[in-house]
Amino acid sequence: MFSGGPLFCDVTWHPAGNPGGDQGTSSMAIASAALNYCGLETMLHMTCVGQSRELVISHLQKAKQAGIQNILALRGDIPNTEGWCSEKNGLSYAVDLVRLIKQEFGDYFTICVAAYPTGHPDCTSYEDDLTYLKEKVDAGADLVITQLFFEARTFLQFLRDCRDMGITVPILPGIFPIQSYQSLRQLTKLSKLEIPNSIISELHSIKDNDEAVRKYGVDLAVKMCRELLDSGQVYGLHFYTLNREVATHGDSKAAGNVV
Predict the structure, then answer these.
(1) Are 4 and 248 in contact (CB under 8 A)?
(2) Bridging pattern class, strands 171-175 and 238-239
(3) Which letter, b or e, does each residue of 46-64 get, where b requires 16 or more Cβ atoms within 10 Å of its Cβ?
(4) How many other C-beta atoms lie within 10 A of the C-beta of residue 123?
(5) pLDDT of residue 126
(6) Least confident residue range of 55-69, 71-85, 128-142, 161-175
(7) DSSP characters over 78-121
(8) How far is CA 168 from CA 70, 98, 105, 240, in A?
(9) Is the distance from CB of 156 to CB of 233 less than 8 angstroms?
(10) pLDDT per residue over 214-245, tens digit each?
């Protein structure tokens, strides 16, 4: 990852695996190692749903002690448990986490928040989701990274709508280079995203040829990256590598080493 010269590297937060623990495989330990041993500026993802303020603050204090200065503030997945309710004195939404970080740590952390270019699948409407995004920014978020999408025009329209709402912070488009047919279907199912019919149709004939799918994925991502950068409205790209950086390196090289 270091050889690609990224502005930062993400480390995801896995609530089921004691992400704030001291074991070498915890999210906190991986983020600390990436920063302090590999020299990679790191953005640690952190979820808040179902956790007390005290526990979240302890995670943030530990991140600060490790020298981590960038947090992607997320709600996280609501437990699929009948009768579940939020923790007393806990946090329910990403905006609550943003407010807590600002209250307890001031400007120490750069705070990033997530956004869906077509609206969060659990939200009542696209317009309402934009309103919630603005609440997160108004609460102190410095940066927005979007969920993946498949057409440049989707992001560019979302960007225009954000600016019309008065959201002025940088917004980075989330790029996912397709690496296999099955992983794409699984990822979009988990994230509740719809794949354009044109892409499904083009992939169907090569779905059993992993090399052909990867090439298709790189070509599609490069085309989209160029459209975004050529728009004059996009100044950086955020790649979802899913721990497989080869396709991302291919995208950045083919796009002219602009990321």
Answers:
(1) yes
(2) parallel
(3) bbbbbbebeebbebbeebe
(4) 15
(5) 95
(6) 71-85
(7) PP--TT--PPTTBB-SHHHHHHHHHHHHTTSSEEEEEE-TT--T
(8) 19, 17, 23, 24
(9) yes
(10) 899 989 999 999 999 999 999 999 998 876 65
Neighbours of 43 (CB within 10 A): 25
Neighbours of 120 (CB within 10 A): 18
Distance CA 147, CA 149 (A): 7
Instruction: Write the burial class of residue 252 (CB in 10 Å: 0-12 exposed, 13-18 middle, 19+ buried).
Output: buried
d(CA 80, CA 75): 14
pTM comes to 0.89
Q: Which two tokens stand for residue 205?
A: 């004939």
Q: Position 43: which residue type?
A: M
Query: Which pLDDT score is estimated for 24?
Result: 87
Strand partners for 46: 73
Nearest in space to 120 (alpha carbons), one of 77, 166, 156, 164: 77
Closest CA to 94 of 1, 192, 29, 13: 13
pLDDT of residue 259: 43
Q: Could you read off the pLDDT of 47-72 as tens digits, one per residue?
A: 998 888 999 999 999 999 999 999 99
- The answer for residues whose C-beta is within 8 angstroms of residue 179's C-beta and 6 or more apart is 213, 214, 217, 242, 244, 247
